[in-house]
Specification:
This protein is α+β, with helices and mostly antiparallel strands and about 600 residues long. The protein is about 35% helix and about 20% strand. The protein is built from 17 helices and 27 strands.
Length: about 600
Amino acid sequence: MIDEERRQERRIEKERVRRRMRVEIDPENYEYIPEKAPVDFYDTSVHQRVAVYVRVSTDDVQQTTSYELQQKYYKDFVEQHPNWELVDIYADEGISGTSLAHRDAFNRMIKDCKDGKIDLILTKSVSRFARNIVICIGMVRELADMRPPVGVLFESEAIFSLNEDSQMALSFLATMAEEESHTRSRSMETSLRMRLDNGIPLTPKLLGYTHDESGNLIVNPNEAITVKLAFYMYLLLYSTQEIADRFNQQKRKTFLGNDTWTANSIVNILRQERYCGDVLTRKTFTPNFRDHLSKKNRGERPQSRYLNHHEAIISRDDFIAVQSMLDNSHFQRASDNKSLMPSLYVIERGLLRGFVRMHPRWMGFRPQDYIEAGQSFQPSTELSQSIEQPTNGFQVVRTDLLAGTSNFRISFAEGHLTIGRNIVQKLKPDYCAEFLIDPAGKRLALRSAAKDNRRAVRCPRPQKRYSCYINSKPLYNAIISIFGWEPDNRYRLNGNLYEADGTVVFLFDAECAEVFLKSYKIPFAEANENEVSILKSTKKYTQVVMSDLLGSFGEPFFTVDQCNLRRDEWRLNENGRIFETRKPLNITDENIMQKYVEEELYRTEEHFGEEI
C-alpha cells in the first residue's frame, strides 16, 4: 500500500516536470541574440593588431643568424595578411626561456597586451615562447582572460591558444620544452664537471692577469700593483672601506676599467685564491635550471683545487692570513700584539689548570683546536700523588638534581648565552668576564676580566632581576660542540664561586647540566625505552633528567677535586702558555709591506697615472 502511494507521487511529479518543459514561445515577444564569432586568425577579413615574438637563448654567431631570419620571416608573414597590422617585433637575444628574468622584450610585449595594444601574438614555437610550463600555460591563460582576449599563435605546432581544443596539446608541448631545457642543463653540468675535475679549470680574466695564446693566466705587471697593494694594506690593518677610499682618491682602475671602488669590490679581490697561484673550482652552482640563480657551494657539489696552477701575485701564506682576518673581521688586535691572529693559552697551574682561554670573537678557532690545546696539558704528578684516595664512599650531589638551589647560573639556548644576575653583580666594577673551558673534564669557567682584556665579554648590567644575554657565535658553537650538546635543547649550568687576589671565578660542571628539551619532543623521548624522566614542564621547554642517573647522587667526593688546593695556590689570575694551533705562517715582513704601501699611496696623482 505504501509502495503504491510512492509510485503515484512520482508519476504526478514527472507529469508536472513535463508540463513545465512544454513551453510555447510567443514570436512577437521573443528575440534571439547570437553570440559573437570567436577570433579566428585564419579569417583575413578581421582586423588584428599583431605582435611578433622572437627569442634565441645564446649569443652564438649561428644563433644570431637564426635571430635575424626569424624577424625577417615573420615580418613578411604578417604582410601577407592584408588586415593584419604589425605592432612591433619583440626580440630577446641571448636570453633563456626558463624564467622571465632579463626577458625585457617579452615583458614589454605583455605590458602592451594589458594596455590593449595587441590582439594576436605570433611566435615560432612553444619553446620560443617559454621553456617553463608554469610560465607558458599561466601566461597564455592570463592573455585569454583579458578583455578583449589576446591569442597566441604557435606557428610550428599550428596551435592557437584561444581554441578550446588547444589546451591539452599546448600543455604537453610546454612540458616537453621544459624537459628539453632540463636535459640540456644536466648535460652542460656533466660536461663542466668532467672539465673541472680533469685538469682543465675555467680561468676567466680578472684584475692582475691576462691570457696568453694558450689561454693560460699570466701576470699583468701594471694591474698586479693594485692587487698586491690591497693585500698588503689589509694585512697592515686597513679596513676594506679605507682601502676602497684610497683607491678612489688615486683613481685606480677596476677590472671593468672604471675608477669606482667599494668595500665589497675590495673583499672580492681579497677572497680570490687565484692571486696566490691556486684555482678552486665550482665555488658556486645553479641548483634550479628554471630560475638560474647561483648559490654558494657549501658541499652540495664536488670541488677541485689546483695548487701552483699559474704564477702568483702574493704568497700563499699572505693569502691564508688574509682569509683568517676576513673570517674574523670583528676581531680587533691589541696594539702590543705582533701576531696577525690570536693564540690559544693553556693554564697549567692553580685552580684553573687544564683550562683553555676562549676567544669570543675569533671564528678561526675550531672546537678541535680547543680540544687539542687541552690535551697538551700534563697534570702535575706531585699533585696527583698527594691526593689521598677515599674509602668512605661519599658522593657529591649533582646540581641538576637540586635545581634551584644555586645562586650562580649560566644557560645556553638558541645560539646565545644567558648569564645570571647574581654572577653579573660579582663582576663589578667593569662587568667583564672571560670564558675558559676544560675539554677533557667537561668543565666551564667564567673569570672576571678588565675592560682592556681582548678576550673579555662585556656583560650588560641586568635590570632588576633579569639576566643578561651574550651573543657570541664562536663562543656558543665551540662550547656546544665540545660538550656534545644538542643545539635544539636548552642547557643550564649551576656554578660555584671562588674569590682570591681581587679575581672572581665561577666553575661549572657540564656533566651536571640541567637539560631542557623542546616540549614537542617529550613524547618521542619517553617512548624511547623511558630514556628521560620529567622534572618540570613549561609551554616551550620541559626539564628532564636521564633515567639512568636517578640511581646515584653524583660523583665520588675526592675525584680530582680542584678544591684540595690551598687558597694561596689557586692562582686565579694565571695567563697560561701559548698553544700553537696550526703551522706558523711565513707572512711577508711588516717593514717590507709598509714600505710598499707608502710608495704606492703617497705618489702624486700625475706620477701615478704615468706609472700605471
